[in-house]
Amino acid sequence: MAVPPIRVLIVEDEEMVRHGLQVLFEVLEDLELVGAAANRHDAIRLASELHPDVVLMDVMLSGLPQGIAAANTIHQSVPHVQIVALSAFFSPELTQLAKQAGIISFLSKTATAEEVAAAIRLAYAGRSTDL
Question: 6-124: which CATH topology?
Answer without folding.
Answer: Rossmann fold (3.40.50)
